[in-house]
Design brief:
It contains 16 helices and 21 strands. By secondary structure, it is α/β, with parallel strands linked by helices. Helix 2 (82-100) crosses helix 8, helix 4 (123-134) packs across helix 5 (138-160) and helix 5 packs parallel to helix 6 (187-200). The protein binds 1,4-dihydronicotinamide adenine dinucleotide and magnesium ion.
C-alpha cells in the first residue's frame, strides 16, 4: 500500500495505559467474538429465475460467488446469455398481456404484501446470506438492508390500489416490461427499490443482480414463487456486463433502470439513444458533508463516521468529502481520529463488527490505487491502527487531510472507507467547493441555524440534502441525482411516476 511512499503517514498508536477508556476500547481488552449463527440456507448452485421457474442457463455456464471476508467460494451462479434474457423478456410480455398490467390495483397489492411478509419471515436467513456474499457487517444487513427492503415492498403495496393519486387529475398506466440492472453495494435493497414500484404500477420485470452479489436476488425468486405471483411477472437473471447489456438493449423493454457506475451508465445511454425506451439512471456520487462552526460537534462526528464508513463506504451517496469550517477543523479532526481508532474492522459475521470486508478484490485494488494517489499528490493520511484479518479483502478506515480540490481523492468516487477532508471559511466557499464536482447525488449540512439549512439545501446541487443527520433512507422519500449522478427518482410518489405513462 501507500507505505512505500516517502510521505509520512500517521497511524493511531496502540493503547498503552489502562485508563477506563482503554478497558472498554483499547487493545488490552477485546470484545468476545459474537458470531451470527443463523443458517443462510445456501445452495451449491443458483439457476436463473425465468417464467416462475428456476432454469439452467442455455450455455450451461456458471461462475463462482466468493465470500469476500475469507475468499472462500460459496456457490456457483448461472451466467445468462442473450438467449436466456430473450426468454425472460418473452415470459414477462406474456405475463403482462395475460393480465398483470390490467389487474385491479387492490389485487396486485396482495401479492406485493405477500412478498414483504415472506421476506420478514426469512429476514435472518436473508441477512446472513447478504453478509456472506457481499461482506457487509451482519448488524447492517440485519438492521438496515433486509428491513428496509421489506419496507419498500410494504410501502408500494400500499400504493397499488391508490394509483389515481400518483398524478392527480390524470390516469396512469403501466409502461410494460421493464429491464433493470443493479450493483453490489446493497444487493437485496436495490432489488426492492427497483421491483416494488414497478410491480405496484403493473409492469413486468427482467432484472439482473451484480456478479459478486447474486444470491439474495435469486433467493428472492423463491419468495416470488411462494407469494404466488403469476409466472413471468418477475424474472431474475444473473450474469456479467454482457447479460446487463442484453437486458438494457432488448427490444421488448419499454423502460430500463440502472444503478451503478457513471461509466457504465453512459455506455447504456449510448446503446439505447436511438430507441424510445424510457430510462432512469442512478449513478455515482462524491457527496460533501459540510460542518459549520455552530454545529453540535460530537453529533456531527458521528454523522461523518456514518456518512463514510457505513457499508465500508460502498455507498453512492456516501459523505466522502468532509468540508469543515476552518475555525473548528482541528477539533473535528481530533475527535474524528479518536472515533476511528475504536471502529471495529473485521469479520462481517461478528455482531460487533463496524466495518466488514471490501466487496471484491477488484474494488480493493481500486481503493488502494486511489489512496496511493492521495499520498503521492501530497495529502496527509491518517489510518486506524486496527489489525486486518489475514485472508479476505479489507481496508483500514482512512482519513486524508490537506486535500485540495484538484486531488483525485477529491474528485473521483473511491467507493471505500476513505474520507477526504477540506476546509472552508464562508458559506459561499462551502457551496462553491461542494458543487465543484461532476456528481450531484447527496450532501449533508451540520449547523445550529435553520435558515442556513434552508439556504444550503437550495444552493447545493444534490438530489438529497440531509441536515444534522446522514444516510437516512425511507421508501416514502424520493432519491436520485443531478448532473453525472443520473436522473429519475426512486421512492415516494415521484418514484412511481418513473414507472408509468400518463393516459
Ligand atoms: P458497474 O457499473 O460495472 O456494475 C454495476 C452493474 O452493471 C452490475 O450489475 C454489472 O454487471 C452491470 N454492468 C456492467 N457493464 C454493463 C453493461 N455494459 N451494460 C449493462 N450492465 C452492465 O460497477 P463496478 O464495475 O462493479 O464498480 C466500479 C465502480 O463503480 C465502483 O468502484 C464505484 O465507484 C462505482 N459504482 C457505483 C455504484 C453506485 O451506486 N453509485 C454502484 C456500483 C459501482
Ligand atoms: Mg460474492
Amino acid at each position: 500500500m501507500a507505505s512505500s511512499s516517502s510521505v509520512k503517514i500517521r497511524t493511531a498508536k496502540p493503547v498503552k495505559s489502562r485508563s477506563d477508556r482503554d478497558l472498554i476500547f483499547g487493545d488490552l481488552w477485546e470484545f468476545d467474538p459474537a458470531p451470527e449463527s443463523a443458517d443462510p440456507k445456501l445452495k451449491e448452485r443458483y439457476d436463473l429465475f425465468i417464467d416462475g421457474k428456476f432454469v439452467s442457463p442455455k450455455g450451461r455456464k456458471y461462475f463462482d460467488s466468493i465470500n469476500p471476508a475469507n475468499e472462500h467460494k460459496i456457490a456457483r451462479i448461472a451466467h445468462a446469455k442473450a438467449a436466456d434474457v430473450d426468454l425472460a423478456y418473452k415470459a414477462a410480455k406474456k405475463a403482462l398481456d395475460g393480465g398483470w398490467g390490467t389487474m385491479p390495483g387492490r389485487e396486485r397489492a396482495k401479492y406485493i404484501y405477500r412478498i414483504a411478509r415472506l421476506l420478514q419471515d426469512r429476514a435472518r436467513e436473508f441477512a446472513v446470506a447478504e453478509t456472506i456474499d457481499g461482506g457487509k457487517p451482519i448488524k447492517e444487513s440485519r438492521d438496515f438492508d433486509v428491513p428496509t427492503a421489506a419496507a419498500h415492498f410494504f410501502y408500494h403495496a400500499g400504493w397499488a390500489d391508490k394509483l389515481d393519486y400518483v398524478a392527480p387529475g390524470r390516469k396512469v398506466a403501466p409502461l410494460g416490461v421493464v429491464g433493470q440492472v443493479i450493483p453490489w453495494n446493497f444487493p437485496l435493497l436495490m432489488l426492492a427499490w427497483k421491483i416494488a414500484p414497478a410491480l405496484a404500477m403493473g409492469n413486468c420485470i427482467v432484472i439482473k443482480p451484480a456478479e459478486t452479489t447474486s444470491i439474495t436476488a435469486l433467493k428472492l425468486g423463491e419468495i416470488v414463487q411462494d407469494a404466488g405471483l403469476p409466472p413471468g411477472v418477475v424474472n431474475i437473471v444473473s450474469g456479467f456486463g454482457d447479460t446487463g447489456s442484453a437486458i438494457m438493449t432488448h427490444p421488448i423493454a419499454a423502460k430500463v433502470a440502472f444503478t451503478g457506475s457513471t461509466e457504465v451508465g453512459k455506455i447504456i445511454m449510448r446503446s439505447i439513444a436511438d430507441t424510445d425506451k424510457k430510462m432512469t439512471m442512478e449513478l455515482g456520487g462524491k457527496a460533501a458533508n459540510i460542518v459549520f462552526d455552530d454545529a453540535p460537534i460530537d453529533q456531527a462526528v458521528e454523522g461523518i463516521v456514518n456518512g463514510i464508513f457505513f457499508n465500508q463506504g460502498h455507498v453512492c451517496c456516501a459523505g466522502s468529502r468532509l468540508l469543515v469550517q476552518e475555525s473548528v477543523a482541528p477539533q473535528v479532526l481530533r475527535k474524528l481520529e479518536n472515533r476511528i481508532k475504536v471502529l471495529r474492522v473485521g469479520d462481517p459475521m461478528d455482531k460487533n463488527t463496524d466495518i466488514g470486508a471490501i466487496n471484491s478484490k477488484e474494488q480493493l485494488d481500486k481503493i488502494t490505487e486511489l489512496v496511493d494517489s492521495g499520498v503521492k499528490e501530497g495529502a496527509a493520511m491518517f489510518q486506524s491502527a486496527c489489525k486486518l484479518p489475514r485472508k479476505g479483502y479489507y481496508f483500514k478506515p482512512t482519513v486524508f487531510s490537506n486535500v485540495t480540490m484538484s486531488h483525485r481523492i477529491a474528485q473521483e468516487e473511491i467507493f471505500g472507507p476513505v474520507l477526504s477532508v477540506m476546509t472552508f471559511r464562508t458559506l459561499e466557499e462551502a457551496v462553491e467547493k461542494a458543487n465543484n464536482t461532476p456528481f450531484g447525488l447527496s450532501a449533508g449540512v451540520w449547523t445550529d441555524k435553520g435558515s442556513r439549512i434552508l439556504k444550503m439545501s437550495t444552493e447545493l446541487k444534490a438530489g438529497v440534502v440531509w441536515a444534522n443527520t446522514y444516510n437516512k433512507f425511507d421508501p416514502t422519500s424520493p432519491f436520485g441525482g443531478y448532473k453525472e449522478s443520473g436522473f429519475g427518482r426512486e421512492g415516494g410518489r415521484q418514484g412511481l411516476l418513473d414507472y408509468c405513462k400518463l393516459v
